[in-house]
Amino acid sequence: QVQLVESGGGLVQAGGSLRLSCVASGRTFSSAAMGWFRQAPGKPRNFVAAISWSSGSTLHAMSVKGRFTISRDYAKNTVYLQMNSLKPEDTAVYYCAAGLNSILERDYNSWGQGTQVTVSS
């Protein structure tokens, strides 16, 4: 199993930036990729971005493309989500996940506890 710990969430004004971090420990070699998902109140959890551990290839949801960037530090077992030009609709709990390089929630088998991101207008 992989253990994931997110950090970096907080309150920011619209147009601002935040960087989320996710540190992985445990059987990290068992996961091909890391992903970020988010869940707003009363809504389902949605894919945000994913990155392959080995190749660094990335996937980004259309809603965040050009504003958010996922990256990884292989040596530190850490994945980042740089979020720029934040909008109020980006407000959600952001979850880090480990699994396949996929946009599908079911392809991830380890999840962090989540970190709250709130964007004020």
Description of the molecule:
The protein has 121 residues and is mostly beta strands. It is built from no helices and eleven strands. Strands 2, 4, 5, 6, 9, 10 and 11 form a seven-stranded mixed sheet that branches. The mean pLDDT is 95.
Key traits:
55% strand, 4-stranded antiparallel sheet, single chain, mainly beta, 121 residues, 7-stranded mixed sheet
Reconstruct the topology from this structure:
Layout: E1 2-7, E2 10-13, E3 18-26, E4 33-39, E5 46-52, E6 58-60, E7 68-73, E8 78-83, E9 92-99, E10 108-111, E11 115-120
Radius of gyration: 13 Å
Distance between the termini: 39 Å
How many helical elements? Answer: 0
Helix content: under 10%
- Helix/strand/pairing class, anyone? mainly beta
Largest sheet: 7 strands, mixed
Mean pLDDT: 95
Identify the overall geometry: globular
Question: What is the N-to-C order of secondary-structure elements (H for helix, E for strand)?
Answer: EEEEEEEEEEE
Quick one: how many beta strands?
11
Strand content: over 45%
Uncertain ranges: none
